[in-house]
UniProtKB/TrEMBL annotation, chain A:
PANTHER family, sorted: ER MEMBRANE PROTEIN COMPLEX SUBUNIT 7
Species, as recorded: Apodospora peruviana
Predominant place of localization: membrane
ER membrane protein complex subunit 7 beta-sandwich domain ranges (all copies): 58-177
Subcellular locations according to the entry: Membrane
Pfam families: EMC7_beta-sandw
Protein name in UniProt: ER membrane protein complex subunit 7 beta-sandwich domain-containing protein
Membrane topology listed for this record: Single-pass membrane protein
Ranges annotated as biased composition (Gly residues): 258-267
Signal peptide: 1-21
From TrEMBL, chain B:
EMC1 first beta-propeller domain boundaries: 21-425
Name of the featured protein: ER membrane protein complex subunit 1
One protein family per Pfam: Beta-prop_EMC1_N
Organism: Apodospora peruviana
Self-association state and partner proteins as the record states: Component of the ER membrane protein complex (EMC).
InterPro entries named in the record: Beta-prop_EMC1_1st, EMC1, EMC1_C, Quinoprotein_ADH-like_sf
Length: 281, 980
């Protein structure tokens, strides 16, 4: 309600002054002008923060929000955010101004505001670090007699702290690798056990020629591996026992333990302790 | 070729990913902030109901530093505030509120403004050419509900008086009354049908009061009265009071000897005289501001020992003034305040012992509430009160008073004599601050010294006894272990129960000594959220004067702090308690320009430098060993050394002078900070070659502007010889906007507002706030150390032509780059860490965004490759492609969402841990935080979740304990079930 009345007020003021403005210069399209020295001083320019997706309700913006107007050789001007969500700039002498908006919560696009010697006002978006002449899109005077300011987004001051999350640990590739290999390690012997006997014999045959069975050999307890790698007992090596000490039943059980389910599968197949010994040597 | 705009914005957003931001959970843990307003002024502070139909009122003030704000009376929290002129002001200004209006009107300097009383949003802001002398609100106007503002101006350098009636809606001028006269405009006052402009007429020997009566509707002059003052009034300060807006406004003044009080009811020609009690030191008048209030006023008379008050009534019909009653003399100064509730007028008297509420009609106290013992630490000077008459059960009143005490605190005293809140508003307007280590326990130092001096056996016995004696602290220590353990795990604060200050192993516990322009000094505990440990008044500074502090020196070994002022004044106090050891009050004459902290044979000493840069011969053991650089009256720099003139006596001698070239004036001088450790003397480049840093401890940066040519020249001077090591000129620099420089390690920078054509293409104009960064290296080439090579010592005084020694060949090789900044910066400072291993950050205040930003040095690197992508070698070095803009990323704002107002200066200090630098900013607000420019690499931050760690360890242990038996059972089973 208040916004409406203020806008109406502004409109009334503009209407009252447009006649004088147009009589003095054709190019000026808003505001009241008074002659002061050389060039015309524009007495009133209103910039407005419209309601938008980023700011659905501009009335909640902090009262410390303000616009600054700087140009070469003139003191800076500050305009505070008004009750109607506008920045009212008064008595601007001709010049090319950089208008910046300072707000705690939101960032706004900086503007270039030019007042020419006849009192005409033009507003564009501008980009820092670029040629001053390289203007952005022109900001049009709205029907209410204000220039709308474009909001760029909200400001994020804080860094997010990484939270402890059990699933984020599981998602770690190293952990995933470990889980998968463990699954193979534990699941393989059961798969082999449940195989059709013929297929299994075939598979074991193929295993003998497979260079990979050096590793699998220890797990499945394959006897008589043809290649030297097959002779290497991973479990014994990891257990820290040397080959020479590896003799007698103690080693057998040790191996059975070390190779886990795989060892179990192997011993069941051979039904002889010696089978395991051969698997070691 | 410029980048398309959208791409550049994207780049900008991507750039600061390396910037360290503040974590949400660190807020209030590592940082602290005093949201201050400044000391409220007597005339511009009041309670006001912002909504007509609601009982709740707010406390409004325009302070002596130029902050206009609203405070919640029950909690003391700031609702909104504005630093009106952008910088600190020296008091003055006006603030008024219309009864029942939802806005307040203020005026300061040349502008008149109105603000929404609840939201703090601007209603209107109008600037005029003259200075505002007074402001009033017209309570009754012709156009219905609207209340207008009357503003009195002194225009055209005092040659005309202008009164404007401004519309309360948009500040437009309704009518204007102008009088070309040499009279001094004093005040404006209005009753229901007339407006009175009171001015001083005549000459300074004896002013008369001129009252111009104006019509409220048209502003036309109706009448003019001159009231003789019999030579009592010599300046506008002599007129004590002009009652505003009451049914019968008055003007009052006293004679020179404070024996008679003369009062005139505005609109009448007669004045009435009343005698004052003997021995009056000062007289104040308190009267209601409401039109409907009874025309009663109170005269508060202070004598050397106590205070008393008289209450007078004005007869509305005849204009006669009669004394109604008087109040007894009480000790101390006391404070009175007026409140009105429709027609009723109440006076509240606050003394150190009690609050007394009186009605203006009778001298019988309506209410008297004793203050709780020791609640009000210091005496109330003035205040405002709100009196609410409770409806219903008989005559019952509630009163609350916001008073300013003589220690510059703003305190709200409630009816029951309790202090609701106390705001340390005196900390605004700080002029100097310094970090101080917490003094070590002196007793221990003494006993250790004693042990060292006695014989071995006695010392041994003494030590054993001391240790046995220390055992008595053991139970308390053991008791504290569980609580310390839990607080350590849960990350809560460890409280110091015994209240004793102690250093911590991280070095976060330090003190900050803060001296304000009002003659107060404060001790803040940085490690304990900036808690004010003590405050004390050094001197009584007269209103309008300032305590001009030139230097602070903290003597760690003696545990004493010395503050040196500009008027041959000094104060020495204990760093830990603030107890004054020695003080000398300021003289009338300013005699000291600055103070230099110099190293002498007897440690560090503050040396006063005279107005023309001269140093008087200090005592022999205070003679500095190095050159002292001072500034002369003409702005020139001088190098002063101390030489033996006659025998042993050392006297100062100017060895060099650097006059700033004709047409230029010095705007900023920067030197390397006193603590500026450099971890590495070179920078390793991507190809493993080294560029050696030019590290000259005697270098100084001076920035001078030429107003006519619009240029900024930056000189790098050697302070031993006064030689110019390097200079560079920037064109198109606005001399009217702040220019500031900072220097550290082997680099310096200056910020300014510039507008100029790019050298490659003059048609392209760059405009905006900029920062020019320069790096100094020993040579242009990597792996080269210049003629000095790695020689241990050299003298810049050596002749230039001696090869390999001094002279032109030792000039630095400078690499510079300029960036456009996203916002103006001020109060430049560089982080300091203990060893200088951590990267550095440029700290600066953002006057527009009200925050403190930390710009990483990496971002400001002058060697960033321009116009091409970075090579892998450069990437390895940490260089990023040059982009002309450095936007202020919110994540690099160290003060995050806090609204830090009016910072004038930032100081830094290294902590014990290398990663962290302590920051303290002062001005209007006081803000402090810890900065870790290279992240916290040496301590566990809050992000280290001890609960999770312990939880994980416990879970693992539980797993082991649960799985152990299972495995053992399986082992046994395997052995027994071994297939044989």
């Amino acid at each position: 309600m208040r916004l409406l009345s203020t806008i109406l007020g502004v409109c009334a003021a503009l209407l009252a002054t447009t006649t004088t403005a147009f009589s003095s210069s054709a190019s000026s399209h808003n505001s009241q002008e008074t002659q002061k020295g050389q060039g015309q001083v524009v007495s009133l320019i209103t910039l407005r923060i419209p309601a938008s997706n980023a700011i659905p309700n501009p009335y909640v913006l902090s009262p410390s929000t303000h616009a600054t107007l700087s140009t070469f050789g003139q003191p800076r001007k500050t305009a505070w955010l008004s009750t109607a969500n506008t920045f009212v700039l008064r008595d601007l002498p001709p010049g090319s101004y950089l208008v910046e908006f300072c707000c705690v919560t939101h960032a706004f696009a900086p503007l270039r505001l030019d007042v020419d010697s006849t009192g005409g006002v033009k507003v564009w978006e501008t980009y820092r670090g670029h040629d001053w002449g390289n203007k952005g899109e022109a900001v049009k005077l709205s029907t209410e007699g204000v220039y709308d300011v474009r909001v760029l987004g909200t400001k994020g001051y804080f860094m997010e702290r990484a939270k402890f999350n059990f699933f984020s640990i599981l998602r770690n590739p190293m952990v995933l690798l470990g889980v998968v290999s463990m699954g193979i390690f534990l699941g393989m012997p059961y798969l082999v056990d449940n195989m059709d006997p013929e297929m299994r014999a075939e598979w074991e045959e193929r295993q003998k020629t497979n260079p990979m069975n050096g590793i699998m050999g220890a797990a499945t307890g394959q006897a008589g591996a043809p290649n030297p790698v097959g002779n290497f007992d991973m479990a014994a090596f990891l257990a820290g026992s040397s080959k020479k000490e590896d003799s007698g039943p103690a080693t057998i059980t040790e191996q059975g333990e070390q190779s886990g389910g795989g060892g179990g599968g192997g011993s069941r197949k051979n039904k002889k302790g010696k089978g395991q010994v051969t698997s070691t040597y | 070729m410029l980048l398309p705009p959208h791409l550049s914005t994207f780049l900008l957003l991507a750039l600061p990913s390396a910037v360290r931001a503040v974590f949400q959970d660190e807020v209030g843990h590592i940082d602290y902030h005093y949201e201050l307003l400044g000391v409220p002024q007597r005339e511009t502070t009041f309670f006001h109901r912002p909504r007509r139909d609601e009982k709740a009122s707010l406390l409004y003030t325009l302070s002596d530093v130029g902050v206009l704000g609203a405070v919640h009376p029950s909690s003391g929290a700031v609702l909104w505030r504005h630093l009106l002129n952008g910088t600190l002001t020296d008091g003055g200004g006006f603030l008024r509120a219309g009864e029942g209006e939802n806005w307040v009107a203020g005026a300061l300097g040349k502008s008149v403004h109105a603000w929404d009383a609840v939201s703090g949003r601007n209603k209107f802001w109008v600037d005029f050419s003259g200075e505002v002398r007074d402001l009033e609100i017209m309570e009754m106007t012709e156009n219905g509900g609207r209340k207008d503002v009357l503003a009195l101006f002194d225009e055209e350098d005092g040659s005309s008086t202008v009164l404007r009636r401004l519309s309360g809606d948009d500040g437009s001028v309704v009518w204007e009354f102008k009088e070309t006269t040499k009279d001094i405009p004093l005040q404006v006052s209005t009753n229901v049908e007339k407006v009175f402009v009171i001015s001083l007429h005549g000459n300074a020997a004896a002013y008369n009061l001129k009252v111009t009566v104006l019509d409220t509707l048209s502003g036309k002059r109706l009448d003019e009265l001159v009231i003789g003052t019999k030579g009592d009034v010599h300046s506008k300060e002599d007129v004590m009071f002009v009652g505003a807006n009451s049914a019968a406004p008055i003007v009052a003044w006293t004679d020179n000897s404070l024996q008679k009080l003369r009062v005139n009811v505005l609109g009448l020609k007669t004045r009435q005289e009343f005698s004052l009690p003997a021995g009056a030191v000062s007289v104040e008048i308190h009267a209601p501001h409401l039109v409907q209030s009874l025309p009663h006023f109170l005269v508060h008379i202070k004598t050397a020992s106590g205070n008393s008050a008289d209450v007078y009534h004005v007869d509305l019909k005849t204009g006669g003034i009669t004394k109604a009653y008087d109040l007894p003399v009480q000790r101390g100064t006391g404070a009175f305040s007026t409140s009105s509730d429709n027609a009723n007028v109440y006076f509240t008297r606050i003394t150190n012992e009690e609050i007394v509420l009186l009605s203006s009609t009778s001298n019988a106290a309506i209410g008297c509430w004793p203050l709780k013992e020791g609640e009000l630490r210091s005496a109330a000077i003035y205040g405002v009160s709100e009196v609410v008459k409770k409806t219903g059960s008989g005559e019952s009143f509630a009163v609350r008073s916001a008073v300013v005490t003589d220690t510059d605190d703003w305190v709200l005293v409630r009816k029951n004599g309790e202090i609701a809140w106390s705001r340390p508003e005196g900390m605004t307007g700080a002029v100097a601050a310094a970090f101080a280590e917490i003094p070590e326990n002196e007793d221990l130092v003494k006993t250790l010294e004693q042990e060292a001096h006695s014989n071995i056996l006695a010392a041994y016995i003494h030590r054993v006894n001391r240790h046995i004696n220390d055992l008595k602290y053991l139970p308390a220590y053991l008791n504290s272990i569980p609580s310390r353990l839990t607080s350590s795990i849960l990350g809560t604060e460890v409280s110091f129960k015994d209240g004793k200050l102690a250093r911590d192993s991280f070095g976060f516990h330090k003190l900050v000594i803060l001296a304000t322009r009002r003659g107060m000094f404060y001790g803040l505990d940085v490690g304990n959220k900036g808690k004010v440990l003590w405050s004390n008044r050094a001197f009584d500074i007269a209103k309008g004067d300032k305590w001009n502090v030139t230097g602070i020196h903290i003597d760690e070994s003696a545990g004493e702090t010395t503050v040196l002022g500009s008027n041959k004044d000094h104060v020495v106090f204990k760093t830990e308690t603030g107890k004054i050891v020695d003080a000398k009050a300021p003289e009338a004459q300013v005699s000291t320009r600055s103070a230099a902290l110099v190293n002498t044979l007897s440690g560090q000493v503050l040396l006063a430098v005279g107005l023309d840069g001269e140093i008087s011969s200090p005592p022999a053991d205070w003679t500095p060993g190095q050159t002292v650089v001072t500034r002369g009256l003409g702005g020139e720099l001088k190098g002063v050394t101390f030489v033996a003139a006659d025998g042993a006596k050392l006297s100062p001698l100017v060895t060099w002078t650097f006059p700033v070239p004709q047409g230029q004036k010095t705007v900023s001088i920067a030197t390397r900070p006193a603590h500026d450790s450099v971890a590495s003397i070179g920078r390793v480049l991507g190809d493993r070659s080294v560029k050696y840093k030019y590290l000259n401890p005697n270098a100084l940066v001076l920035a001078a502007v030429d107003d006519a040519a619009l240029t900024l020249t930056v000189y790098l001077l050697d302070t031993v010889t006064g030689q110019i090591l390097y200079s560079s000129k920037y064109e198109g620099v606005d001399a009217g906007k702040p220019i500031e420089c900072a220097m550290s390690e082997n680099w310096f920078m200056c910020s300014f507002f510039g507008q100029y054509g790019v050298r490659d293409d003059p048609d392209q104009i760059v405009k905006g706030y900029q920062i020019a960064v320069s790096d100094m290296y020993e040579s242009d080439q990597p792996n080269e150390r210049g003629p000095l090579d790695d020689s241990d010592s050299y003298s810049p005084l050596d002749p230039l032509d001696v090869p390999g020694a001094g002279g032109a060949s030792t000039l630095p090789s400078v690499v510079s780059q300029t960036y456009v900044l996203g916002a103006p910066i001020s109060a430049l400072q560089v982080t300091q860490t203990r060893q200088g291993i951590s990267a550095r950050q440029l700290l600066a205040y953002l006057p527009d965004m009200h925050g403190i930003v930390g710009l990483p040095r990496m971002l400001l690197e002058p060697r960033r490759p321009v116009g091409r992508d970075v090579t892998p070698a450069e990437m390895e070095e940490g260089l990023i492609k040059y982009h002309p803009v450095i936007e202020i990323d919110p994540k690099s704002v160290l003060s995050h969402e806090r609204d830090v107002l009016g910072v004038e200066k930032i100081i830094t200090s290294p902590a014990v841990v290398e990663s962290t630098s302590l920051l303290f900013a002062y001005g209007v607000d006081v803000f402090g935080t810890r900065v870790a420019p290279s992240f916290l690499f040496d301590i566990l931050g809050k992000g280290f979740n001890k609960v999770t760690l312990i939880g994980t360890v416990l879970a693992l242990s539980a797993g082991v304990f649960a799985l152990g038996p299972m495995v053992r059972r399986k082992q046994i089973d395997t052995r027994w079930n071994a297939p044989m």
